[in-house]
Amino acid sequence: MKPTYAGLDIGACYTKCVIIDDQGAIESLAVTPTGFDFEENAKKVFEKATKGVDGRVLGICSTGYGRKNIGFAHFNKTEITCQSMGCFREFGVEATIIDIGGQDAKIIKVDPEGKRLDFKMNRKCAAGTGAFIEEIAFKIRIPVEELDEIAQSATDEITLGSFCTVFTATEILAHVRAQVPLPNIVRGIFRSVAKRISEMDYFSTRVIFTGGLAKQGSVLSKMIAEETGSEVLVPRNPQITCAYGAAIYAKES
Amino acid sequence: MAEETKRKEIAAAKEMKRIMAQHFYELDEAAKTRKRKVAWCTSVGPAEILRAMGFLVYYPENHGATLGATRTAMNYIPYANRIGYSPDICSYTTSDIGAYLKGETPLSKAYPGITCVPKPDVLAYNTNQCRDVLDWFSFYGREWKLPVIGISTPRSVGEITKEYIADVSGQMKALIKPLEEISGRKFDRDELKRVLALSLETTKLWKACLFTASTIPSAITFFDMTIHMGPAVVLRGQEEAVAYYQLLLAELQERVKNKVAAVEEEKVRVYWEGMPIWGKLREHSALFASLQTCIVASTYCNSWIFEAFDPDDPFDSMARAYTELFIVRTDEFKERYMTEMFKTFSCDGIVYHDSKTCPNNSNTRYGIPQRLTKKTGIPHLIIQGDLNDLRLFSEEQAKTNIEAFIEGLAEK
Q1: Which is it for strands A14-21 and B268-273: parallel, antiparallel or unpaired?
Q2: Do the Cβ atoms of A35 and A41 come closer than 8 Å?
Q3: Contacts from A162-167 at CB under 8 Å and sequence distance 24+?
Q4: Strand ranges (DSSP E) for A80-214?
Q5: Which tens digits make up the pLDDT trace of A167-176?
């Protein structure tokens, strides 16, 4: 049995597990909603990810909001550190990482050697986070995963002026009343997120966009490029880069 | 995985509790019997003048911090909001006024027999910190129909010119006449000199205590400092404060001599800029200790160092001491000051607390953190919170921020 290493990212919405071999190549991965019992779900996702992998897990590093709840992890690191590691190992370039998580938004700067230079998280407000999108999607009764496709067909976009999620929902209601086509509304919602993110910091020439909302060619990815003036790179699997970084730490510690 | 607190306790704390209790019982007795006059004073207000005129001095900001530390502020802020004091203004002010409106005080729990804050004969302020202290005192002035007198200090001061000194010194002298009328006692210059000499001695000893943190490992942390600064604030001008800091300094010097660390296995040294988050001191102390990080210095605890006091030139030297404070100064001065502190205390990082309701103590809003990091190369972190209103603080977010920041510093 070959040696393998696990990274577990217990995020606010989803728990992700990545198994890598001793060369750092991904052997398998699994994702499950985080739910209420962090450890139990982490165990499940870990078992799912290791099932069928012909290897012995020598190290486990946990990360994310629930990182300290995982008794079977050997150690933990913050998601900022793991995200930097995961992204740098995938792209190997100096970049600013934009991670839009379920609970927060993060900006992390990584130098050409992969060293983390600086990071910032959103202020105590949902603007610019996944929670904002989720709340608005719920209000307009459209699943989050369908929003991008809807926005792709927009002919225009509304402008949302408020920072506040609740006030934004009220603003949207006014546009619905005025019979603005839905795609234009959804495009305006994405623009609001891209603007909030771009206001947080200045950006390198390259941005790596991660998190559940990141997708190559998506409306939000394009808007982030427009708002930051940077080239936007999206990882092969943008939801698991943090867990991947944790797995790398598990291997290298 | 529970985080183990690894902060070494200070033995002198027992004596501090005793003298602080004595202070509050003395005030309570005076307010009840009216045998001695009581003055309320802002924390960096004209305390020495009041003491020299025979007043017992009570500091509402100390009460504000107690409301924060006991996590009761949130019970009271809404009462002040209802009568028009916005949740966006100083949460010391709103929690203190709210507690008064509700007829409660955390002093009752700490000091059995005390049922309310000591009602004063006069309220004396200095706006060197902010305008809110005047609004705060004015509320009680109207409520109790009492005189509110004080000093309006210029703000954003660069060089302390003789014009500034003349202005503030003149305002201080102008307090004498009304205070003579209220106290029924003639101003005695020699008594002011005596009180000022005690304040100067207190300040020197307090500074010496704080600066024991410049050694590696540090003998004291910010979390100790915020507790042990009590006598420097409320007992300055009194012999008890001098005796207390002699005791504390001896203990800290013993630690330095024996290389006893306040935080076991100290690895990272951090500067704290901004107000403490009073209701989270215990948690933050445990968090930083678990990360083998000592907060070695802070602007806040340094704010009760008044080195300019000169008993032979009382008014002008008080004017200088209370005007040259960090909070009164320009950003250029603040940046120079902090740069010097980072060197003195060998800081690896800076944590700024952006306190929602305390803009004057939040040096995060006009680019100072970014400029200082660029200039010194020392990384910084900004956490969002508040001095008293924990509804403005996200525990998890702050924790992740702090842990990630220290992780980064430890890797350097």
Answers
A1: unpaired
A2: yes
A3: A163/A125, A163/A127, A163/A196, A164/A125, A164/A127, A165/A126, A165/A127, A165/A131, A165/A132, A165/A135, A165/A136
A4: 95-100, 105-110, 116-121, 206-210
A5: 888 899 999 9
The single-letter code of the amino acid at A142 is I
Q: State the pTM of this model.
A: 0.92
ipTM: 0.86
pLDDT in tens, B251-278: 999 999 999 999 999 999 999 999 999 9
Query: Any idea what the Cα angle at residue B233 is, between residues B256 and B128, rounded to 5°?
Result: 120
Cβ of A124 within 8 Å of Cβ of B393? The answer is yes
The secondary structure of chain A in percent helix, strand, coil, rounded to multiples of 5, reads: 40, 25, 35
Buried-exposed string A9-38: b where 16+ CB fall within 10 A, e elsewhere: bbbbbbbbbbbbbeeeebbbbbbbebeeeb
Q: Give the domains, in start order, of chain A with CATH numbers.
A: 2-81+240-252 (3.30.420.40)
Secondary structure letter of residue B391 according to DSSP: G
CA-CA distance, B373 to B351, in Å (whole number)? Answer: 11
Q: Of B376, B375, B393, give the one whose Cα is nearest residue B384.
A: B393
Under a CB-based contact definition with an 8 Å cutoff, are residues A26 and A18 in contact?
A: yes
Please state, in angstroms and rounded to a whole number, the distance separating the CA atoms of residues B357 and B73.
13
Q: Which of residues 90-109 of A touch B (CB under 8 A)?
A: 104
Identify whether the C-beta of residue B278 lies closer than 8 Å to the C-beta of residue B393.
no
How many Cβ pairs within 8 Å bridge chains A and B? Answer: 36
Residue B298: closest CA among B245, B352, B335: B352
Distances (CA, A) of A78 to A72, B266, B282, B295, B368: 17, 20, 22, 21, 27
Closest to A192 (Cα-Cα) out of A157, A238, A154:
A157
Mark which residues 361-400 of B lie under 8 Å from A by CB.
379, 384, 392-394, 396-397, 400
How does pLDDT run across B54-96, given as a tens digit for each residue? 999 999 999 999 999 999 999 999 999 999 999 999 999 999 9
Return the structure tokens found at B102.
């509700």
